[in-house]
Amino acid sequence: MTDKQVYPVTPEVAKHALINKDQYQAMYKQSIENPDQFWAEHGKRVDWIKPFTKVKNTTYDYNALSIKWFEDGELNASVNCLDRHLESRGDQTAIIFEGDDPSDSRNVSYRELHDQVCKFANVLKSQGVKKGDVVTIYMPMIVETAVVMLACTRVGAIHSVVFGGFSPEALGSRVVNGKSNIVITADEGLRAGRKIPLKKNVDAALKNDDRHTVKTVIVVTRTGGDVAWTEGRDQRYEDLMTNASADCKPEPMNAEDPLFMLYTSGSTGEPKGVLHTTGGYLVYASMTHQYIFDYHDGDVYWCTADFGWVTGHSYILYGPLVNGATTLLFEGVPNYPDSSRMGQVVDKHQVNILYTAPTAIRALMAQGESCMDGTNRSSLRILGSVGEPINPEAWKWYHRVIGNGECPIVDTWWQTETGGILISPLPGATDLKPGSATVPFFGVQPALVDAEGTLLEGEAEGNLVIMDSWPGQMRTIYGDHERFIQTYFSAYKGMYFTGDGARRDADGDYWITGRVDDVLNVSGHRLGTAEVESAMVSHPKVAEAAVVGYPHDIKGQGIYVYVTLMQGEEPTDELKKELVQWVRKEIGPIASPDVIQWATGLPKTRSGKIMRRILRKIAANEYDQLGDTSTLADPSVVDDLINSRQSK
Ligand code: 6R9
């Protein structure tokens, strides 16, 4: 089947675009047939302190897995983001900061940013931070966060950004796992007029750190709110910056030296620290940013993600800054002070490229078109979507209402692990289909396999794998290389397994159908069912819990929890509320259960494995599609669950 509704490349877009259809075909072909030559050429898009002579050295062979790109080159990320632009665009705005409060905005030039970064790099050095140390960053969406991240790269430290919405418990376990002995935070964050107690959370997180290895906490003043102070450990960012020199020699990094780590959820166990290295990542992030967003010099580019997620790393910070772009950094949320905010920000800063998430679009859509009243968004040229499958209805609304029917939408599929976008249209080269991420980027070879790992040809649906390495790929799970190999390369030998399912249509376009493992995608945020379950069962009244996702109009997926209480505990509405609060405290607000259902028993196989497939169907109200339940240890459990679901 070819999907009928196609939005062809328009002549206006084609005229302006960096890559047309023929160029895409030719470049893609070269990138697959001769990757060394292709990436040797495109590897030059970043500045090397010592040029590479080797390009691709990778094997997905399970027993000899190795991923190295540009392995003998040396470079520094902050130099690529800042120093190399000083001569040509020192006074150009690097970052437009748009605060939570619409009256709070400012522009930061490349020169100013360079100064701040060098100063903070010297501060880090003065605090004893060396190449290879892990610096934990727990900060709001402010300019200082970009400064801190880039300063880490200047001295060769590995930053580990923890999303400001995570709880003290989640932060604490990431600090410990990363063996980090320094945390950078702010007094409080600001979101939708509310204060987020970041420093307080850090204090609580470190109280639980029984190793007491965190020697330094640096606190940026954002709100000026009162915070507790631990003498000898806590220091004010502003005080440290006052006397710091703005002269800091960058640390030459090998292409394969770590750049950052970022925790993400998997289907089992604790979140894993995804490790990215320097050379390949910067080449890939900047190249995808330029071509996929059809970025031209002078464009104003706005990605609404948070630094706490990979999109914030690759497409607010590194990709845009390596390209010398003007990147907008937004502290707030799309519906504060009201739902016209997104349109207002676009008009105010004359944004040309807008990159956001389906959940934000659906939330605006639910407000009705009037949320764009009073704004014209005529500066927009390209729209982007990321984080979860975009339903065709939301796609069309985004296209018609936000983009005035004139802007191509690039639906970009990728993952924390991939470092940059792997499947996406290119504005001048790809005809669009609402809901399809379409075609692979240069150097990327997607394929579909069935459960046995047999490659599927032509029109098909199956598990999405990638057949060969690309420069932005993660290199390991911090501290656990074995888990890296097991998680991504053991399911299908010789292939990278994405954890996603996909369909390929008769034109060869890919349609991502969502996770095929036990990972939830709630408002574009990744969460492991295992994490939510382990938070739930840590409550003293809970005996057992099973978590599944269910279709949710705004969030994409909502969190549905089946809970079995300890003998003698009363299943009350108060207890449900308490359990919701409990999970928020353990993980953070993004993990708040949407529905809790009391369960006297859970459907398990005779070997004791919970059959989530059945729980998913019950949560989705699809009782007629339960499939085979005869292998259950106690099939009557299913009827009980359905009855109690219906009687609610
Ligand atoms: C970048 C990012 C990755 C998971 C991924 C997939 C889902 C992301 C998507 C998409 C359909 C898209 N996902 N983009 N699904 N269409 N355009 O989101 O990274 O937080 O690691 O999540 O998100 O399921 O596997 P991450």
From TrEMBL:
Binding annotation for Mg(2+): 537, 539, 542
InterPro entries in the cross-refs: Ac_CoA_lig (IPR011904), ACAS_N (IPR032387), AMP-bd_C (IPR025110), AMP-bd_C_sf (IPR045851), AMP-binding_CS (IPR020845), AMP-dep_synth/lig_dom (IPR000873), ANL_N_sf (IPR042099)
Record-annotated AMP-dependent synthetase/ligase domain positions: 83-467
GO biological process, one term: acetyl-CoA biosynthetic process from acetate
Entry GO terms, CC: cytosol
One of the record's GO molecular function terms: ATP binding
PROSITE patterns found in the cross-reference section: AMP_BINDING
Keyword Magnesium found: yes
Sequence ranges assigned to domain AMP-binding enzyme C-terminal in this UniProt record: 531-609
Cofactor(s) this protein cannot do without: Mg(2+)
Residues where N6-acetyllysine is found: 609
Pfam families: ACAS_N, AMP-binding, AMP-binding_C
Family, similarity comment: Belongs to the ATP-dependent AMP-binding enzyme family.
Function: Catalyzes the conversion of acetate into acetyl-CoA (AcCoA), an essential intermediate at the junction of anabolic and catabolic pathways. AcsA undergoes a two-step reaction. In the first half reaction, AcsA combines acetate with ATP to form acetyl-adenylate (AcAMP) intermediate. In the second half reaction, it can then transfer the acetyl group from AcAMP to the sulfhydryl group of CoA, forming the product AcCoA.
HAMAP family linked to this entry: Ac_CoA_synth (MF_01123)
UniProt protein name: Acetyl-coenzyme A synthetase
Originating species: Marinobacter psychrophilus
